[in-house]
Amino acid sequence: MFTGIVQATCEVVSIHKAAGLNTFEVAMTPKLTQGLVTGASVANNGVCLTVTKILNDKVFFDVMEETLALTNLGNTSVGDHVNIERSLTFGTEIGGHILSGHVHTQATVKAVSNTAEHYNIELQVDSKWMNYIFYKGFVGINGCSLTVGKVSDSGFMLHLIPETLKLTNLSQYKVGDKINIEIDSQTQVIVDTVERILAKKQLLNN
């Protein structure tokens, strides 16, 4: 489990491609690798990956074919930086919201507005996922817990503060790029439950 508070952006220094998976080698800081062990879970752009090897602050992850297809890790190249968060430790402050590291879908960057007053990103997603995305609600964006701005039938707006831009890789994204999306699980459960109840009542009334 994760909090959506990105700890660092780290460079992908190599990608070894094999049948059915890619092995990512990510350069981390000594602070991030302190106490990290093989088998631990680390979020890379919001995707929960298992550590397979640690070598001189280089951390290795095996990324399965399905994960490559369903997330933007499939478009990641050597030299790119990914958002990194280690697993949640109970007893410490939680500043974001609980994320599982299981990406639901990808959003396409529709527009970027960077002015002296603001930095806004407009995202477009499949309309079925907009049932779970609400104005002022939370959503995981490349593993970063963010508040939703204006919403439409096909997407939503993000209003990013300088601190978020400094600590994450979101400033690197341009129109047409793909960003990993994890919706809030509690919101999904509530919406799905209400829809089932309403559908059942409608069926009984017919």
Q: Would you write up a description of this structure?
A:
Its EC number is 2.5.1.9. It holds the Pfam family Lum_binding. Residues 1-97, 98-194 form the Lumazine-binding domain. It comes from Shewanella litoralis. The chain has 2 domains: 8-86, Beta Barrel (Elongation Factor Tu (Ef-tu), domain 3), CATH 2.40.30.20; 105-192, Elongation Factor Tu (Ef-tu), domain 3, CATH 2.40.30. Strand 4 and strand 5 (58-64) form a beta hairpin. The model has no long low-confidence stretch (mean pLDDT 93). It is globular and about 65 Å long. A 6-stranded antiparallel barrel has the order 1-2-5-4-3-6. Strands 10-9-12-7-8-11 form a 6-stranded antiparallel β-sheet. It has helices spanning 30-33, 65-70, 162-167, 185-205, and strands spanning 8-18, 21-27, 41-44, 47-55, 58-64, 81-86, 105-114, 119-124, 138-141, 144-147, 155-159, 178-183. By secondary structure, it is α+β, with helices and mostly antiparallel strands.
Decide which structural class fits the backbone. alpha+beta
Specify Rg, calculated over alpha carbons: 18 Å
Count of extended strands: 12
Mean pLDDT score:
93
CATH architecture assignment name of the largest domain: Beta Barrel
Q: Outline, from the CA principal axes?
A: globular
Low-confidence stretches: none
Secondary-structure element order, N to C? EEHEEEHEEEEEEHEH
Q: How are the strands of the biggest sheet laid out side by side?
A: 1-2-5-4-3-6
| Helical residues, percent | 10-25%
Count of discrete alpha- or pi-helical segments spanning 4 or more residues: 4
> Which CATH C-level class of the largest domain is it?
Mainly Beta
CATH topology of the largest domain: Elongation Factor Tu (Ef-tu), domain 3
The percent range for strand residues is 35-45%
What is the makeup of the main sheet? 6 strands, antiparallel, barrel
Domain count, please report it: 2
Separation of the first and last Cα atoms: 43 Å
